[in-house]
Design brief:
This protein is an alpha+beta fold. The chain is built from eleven helices and 23 strands. Strand 9, helix 6 and strand 10 form a beta-alpha-beta unit. The protein starts with a helix and ends in an 8-residue tail after the last strand.
Length: 469
């Protein structure tokens, strides 16, 4: 075994050890939760409380996922591939077991409920239509033989739906989704958009309380995706059902959601309305993930109310200066409070409580390191920060009252999008982009003068990448 192979072997062993420790800690937490009383929250329709998912190979897909969804709300889970959004959806549907944490649907503890008992309907990315059945038969398949609660003579009974009731639901769904004329066709005779409508119709007829949609538009072309987006929003408005929609496309999230949940590596980064996550990102990841083109980011220095970007300087407003001066003391206090809470409530790895859990020890060390780093930075007059601005706030034309000094740049690429240009250039060896009106032609090598809208800039901490403002 050479030196490189030895290092890789040691790295794999260390990763395996960490995964095993985390796995057994989460299992221990799950055992404690089973003994506790499960009381459903009253102010929401669906509630995920501290949900974790670890697979048998010890890989953790979802970490401490907590979300309360109101009745009739349209929630979008968005994030890059592998962030745990589809796994979360499958746990809500009952297709994946929850390792630890609590799930409540319509006031009921749902962790142990079978999928059919959860009153949810799931629409998959691949449509999952039976090719040998007609559209009508596909939509009716899940209803035949299934029992539903029906009120008879003042009390609830479980009985099968009649043929007339099934037909009524299918006709109503077909009318709402505009697929009545396709009911006798086979899936092979339909376009991608029509197949997607049928898949939605199959969920529609179940009268489900929650609709779960796992990237249902990813197989469609761009024009049809735009059309189906508006149709889904209209369908939600008509049905008033709770919908949870998974996508990796931030445009879909921004245009469809009541609230967006942004995930990264199985952890929630921010929950908010589309305008909240766009205008006030919680951290650098959210700022660069939401919005197209992505937010321009560069390292900068803050001192005495001014930001230095290489040779140029930007003067912050009094309100912005107050926020950056208050940020570091607030972070120090928050981490000290969290450290005190950790020390007051130690976590052990054994029943006799003689050995502290590894994750607990690491969390203590991490909190102490953060406190020391913030205290060191707070004591300095000149503080390193990350400066960000969206391409549309970097232009030759702006209505803002506060603009930066002119920034002369050389165009390295110019993308015409009809009404706008995306101009790419370098600033301190970083690739930047500006979105400007297409009121003239731009070419590679042209020099342009741009100004920043200083009311729309973003500053991020270099230690945690949290947003300062």
């Amino acid at each position: 075994m050479n030196e490189k192979e030895k290092l890789e072997w040691q790295k794999e062993n260390e990763e395996r050890r960490k995964n095993n420790e985390n796995y057994f800690e989460v299992l221990s937490l799950a055992k404690k939760e089973q003994k506790q009383e499960h009381t459903a929250p009253t102010d929401c329709f669906l509630s995920c409380q501290h949900i974790n998912k670890i697979y048998s190979n010890r890989i953790q897909a979802v970490t401490d996922f907590s979300l309360d969804v109101k009745d009739g709300e349209f929630i979008v889970l968005v994030g890059p591939s592998g962030c745990g959004k589809s796994t979360t959806l499958r746990m809500i549907a009952g297709l994946e077991d929850i390792t630890s944490g609590d799930l409540y649907i319509d006031g009921k503890y749902a962790n142990k409920l079978e999928p059919k008992e959860r009153h949810v309907a799931m629409v998959f990315q691949s449509y999952a239509l039976y090719p040998h059945m007609s559209v009508y038969e596909n939509m009716a398949f899940g209803l035949k033989g299934s029992k539903e609660a029906v009120e008879v003579d003042g009390h609830i009974e479980m009985r099968r739906l009649t043929r007339e009731e099934i037909d009524g639901r299918i006709q109503a769904a077909a009318k709402a989704l505009q697929i009545t004329e396709y009911l006798n066709r086979k899936p092979t005779q339909l376009s991608g958009g029509q197949c997607q409508r049928v898949a939605l119709g199959r969920a529609y007829v179940r009268n489900a309380k929650v609709f779960l949609l796992d990237e249902p538009l990813s197989n469609l072309d761009a024009k049809l995706r735009i059309q189906m987006r508006s149709e889904l929003v209209r369908l939600h408005d008509d049905l008033k059902n709770t919908m949870i929609y998974v996508t990796h496309d931030q445009t879909e999230a921004m245009t469809m959601a009541d609230r967006i949940v942004i995930l990264k590596l199985g952890k929630i980064q921010q929950i908010g309305t589309p305008i909240e996550v766009y205008d006030h990102p919680a951290n650098l990841f959210v700022a660069t993930f939401i919005g197209s083109p992505t937010t321009n980011v560069i390292e900068a220095l803050y001192r005495n109310g001014k930001i230095s970007l290489g040779d140029s300087q930007i003067t912050l407003s009094p309100e912005q200066q107050e926020k950056i001066e208050a940020f570091y003391p607030a972070e120090i206090e928050a981490h000290k409070a969290h450290l005190a809470k950790l020390e007051a409530e130690p976590r052990y790895k054994d029943k006799k409580q003689t050995k502290l859990a590894k994750s607990y020890q690491k969390e203590l060390v991490r909190e102490k390191e953060l406190i020391q780093a913030f205290e060191t930075l707070n004591g300095k007059e000149e503080k390193p920060i990350l400066f960000g601005i969206r391409p549309e706030n970097l232009s030759s034309i702006s209505d803002s009252k506060r603009l930066s000094d002119p920034l002369k740049v050389k165009i390295e690429a110019a993308e015409l999008l009809g009404a706008d240009y995306y101009l790419h250039f370098s600033l301190q060896e970083k690739d930047w982009c500006a979105k400007v009106p297409a009121d003239r032609l731009y070419h590679i090598g042209d020099e342009v003068v741009l100004k920043m809208d200083l009311e729309k800039i973003h500053l991020f901490d270099t230690i945690t990448e949290k947003s300062i403002f």
